[in-house]
Specification:
- 41% of the residues are buried.
- This protein is of the alpha/beta class.
- Helix 6 (172-183) links the parallel strand 3 (159-163) and strand 4 (190-195).
- It contains 11 helices and 12 strands.
Length: 361
Amino acid sequence: MDLAQQVKTDLSGTFPASSTNLTTLAQLQDAGLLAQDLDPTLTQVAQRYAIGLTPHMANLIDRSNAADPIGAQFIPSPKELHTLEVEILDPIDDAGFSPLPGLVHRYSDRVLLKVVSVCPVYCRFCFRREMVGPGGPNLTRADLAAAIAYIAAHPEIFEVILTGGDPFMLSPRRVGELTQALAAIEHVKIVRWHTRVPIVDPDRVTPAFIETLKAPEIATWVAIHANHAQEFSKEAQSCVRSLADAGIALVSQSVLLKGINDNLEALQDLMRMFFGLGIKPYYLHHPDLAPGTSHFRLPIKKGQALMRALRKTMSGLAQPTYVLDIPGGAFKAPLETPHVREASTGLQLLDGKGVWHDYKG
């Protein structure tokens, strides 16, 4: 049987969202997360960008703290309507590297497969905020078959990275079918899932779900996204341990966010939380130039200073790599010399081909 035909279904179906998920301004008000005298500009924000917050995360937000580090990540703000000239709808140019719907082939040995457009929560700083949300594009059966066939036809592809949206929104059956289809491709050895679900909705990750992530022919990795230690409830920590106990390799993804984790204590606590749960700190992203996100961005020099301080206080295993996707999709540049320099035009970043790029963020 053709490999593509082994995928028996499309990916339009996901786990049903909890009926109590907060997806509207009114629901956030009822939960005490927005003032009753609503700022009228928030209606414009809600019309443009998806809102989503699980009850699990809502319960972790301190309503008495206007700067709560969890609330700031998910509760919409009028600041999102402020767009800078340098901000870009597709800041890392996924579209420019997409040979097929849902597939991004930016680096020769790996591809991104964006299997769903929905997430359990919608981060206000998301670099794909113009593309994700209810009603967004999910892969059809034909799209998925074409993507699998493309991967099978390119023997240089060693690793497949599943993203979206959040791929853990798929049902266990669909996850299992996708895992098996990729495992059947001889040259694919790594399948990596990028997700927030273990932190924001840990009950979704059942033992049966975990088993569908694995196949003897591949190594399964899960990249877990969290930005503050307060996100790690007891349930989330238990979920992470279940993944680790199942033999799944875990790495972290975080974004360095102004007012949320841009201080040494917050970063130490976050990396120690990852490290203590068996999650290898992997990437600390400088925020991308997504529209309406400038209030989350801090100067790169401050991020560099924080990384120097982190290196002085924590072991090498607990160190993430501070990175920025060069706008336009050229390269994921480590934000440390020799990849960063000052020039007459301002800050410049070095890509993997030895080309320097001006950065105006």
